[in-house]
Request: fold
Amino acid sequence: MPAKKPKVAVFKFASCDGCQLSLLDAEEHLLAVAGAVEIANFAEASRRMLKGPYDIGLVEGSITTPHDVERIREIRKSCRVLITIGACATAGGIQALRNWKDVKEFTRLVYASPEYISTLDRSMPVGSYVHVDFELRGCPINKLQLLEVVNAALNKRKPNIPAHSVCMECKLRGTVCVMVAKGIPCLGPVTQVGCGAICPAFDRGCYGCFGPMENPNPPALSTRMFELGKDRHDIMLLYRGFNAYAEAFRKESEAHEK
Amino acid sequence: MFIVELNDLQGLLTALQAGGFTVIGPTVKDGAITFDTLSSIEELPRGWSDVQEAGSYGIRHSEDDTLFSYNVGPHSWKKFLFPARLRLFSARKAGKAFEVDPVSPSAPPKYAFLGVRSCELAAIAIQDKIFMSGPYADKHYTALRKSACIIAVNCVHVGGTCFCASMGTGPRAKDGYDLVLTEIRTDDRHYFVAQMGSPLGKGLLQQVTHREADQKEREQVEKALKAAHDRMGRSLDTHNLPRLLEDNFESPRWEDVAKRCLSCANCTMVCPTCFCSTVEDVTDLSGEHAERWRRWDSCFTTDFTKVAGGNIRMSTRTRYRQWLTHKLCNWVEQFGTYGCVGCGRCITWCPVGIDITAEAAAIRETSMTTTNG
Reply:
């Protein structure tokens, strides 16, 4: 009799669905995934929803409402391994820009009856409410990295997900540094690798989609950005992206806010 | 010494190609002078020069139509001899154990490196020692290196971040080449002075139109190299250097540089002598098939020093210190030379312009010990 396949469930919070769609985007690997695991809950793929407990839970999205808080606690209880995927789930996402503003004012402006809106002041990563076993970064995540994490969990080995800078990936693929050779401001030196260093290969600076690298030093990078002609406002905006509320990026943008 | 006129230089490329070599050389790409496969001399950066300073690099049209009036760029030859990523082997599950897949013997590419500078010859010699000697010689490096042909070019122009004269590695190519060229451009002439370094080089030169250099042409080479030596962009005082660094292991300068250092690892990636790598094992989803890959690693990453029980180098201060003292102190004891060849890449390609020569000088200046004497 074949061994019981591990049950994998996908859950969504405040997010665009792009990260969980990476799983469907796995193309040539999709059949292998479907063969290796039982997809127990994946609303983007099937209406079939099996009850927990689950072996692996993939969580997308940030926690933004009181109901989210209750739900993530229940999900945590039902998953043996909980993996958060994407910048929303690992750092609060682009919607964390509201963390610097008055959310009540937004609801008054947007909704005819704001009293029906129940929301938290801040958009927060899943890890600030429950224990997370592994955080997979990126906006969106890299589908190959997602497969690697699932693969490692299934084969009980450490995932090969490095936490070093994007610069290393640029050098591995032979990309000429856009900051040194063209004076383009780039977050690569303070950002975690994972995307494959795409933007510098197309003459753009890194946008920091994978969040802060293992031991980032944004103040040192800002010193250089000033020399390249950027002002404090420019630098603040550079860090106010998809990972704006990740600690190292948050601190650096706040340092240049006023 | 022999003279090869500019118009006859293509003959050298043709001879290399006829010899089965893949010719790699400098060419303009992505706003820099990078290394790529060349099929013709026309692809060389003719009429280009570069401007290099700490944390900045740019190419400009030069005042003349020379082919080699620039210095080392973002790439180094190590990317060919010691590839950034390499599959070491693949294996399949066999019961509770695994079986390594048989490797089909295939000849490694036969590279001819055109335009190798003296600092790079020194770097290749260092990597040769690391990868090809002792009981654990690297068979991948050895195979590529043994079949490679090196056409060096003497530096008659020096860059803003060059300091090979301090490290005793240039600007003149001393050995380690098959053929070395010195490009001479005067008002009315444009030619190369060639010297052979091996039977392979001699054989190549025989296939190219050439003649014996006269006294004046020989002197021209000496004059150009002397001028390059005297115009060196930077210098590094190596007097008692290993001892100085040993004595200043707790210098406050390490903390100072740690505030500026991004720990991004660019310096180690561009360094032509840095040889560290890591191995990653990957499996397919079923766990039936596995592969082991080697990729460049750096002493600036946390994984690099992660050992059972913890991490031995958690701060940027200790990592930068490890890197600099390895290059300029411990390397001497380990390999008998400095690990730095003065190419200046780590200075140019550091996004924040940290300068190894300035850091070493600052430590010397603030040294409390007598090794400074």
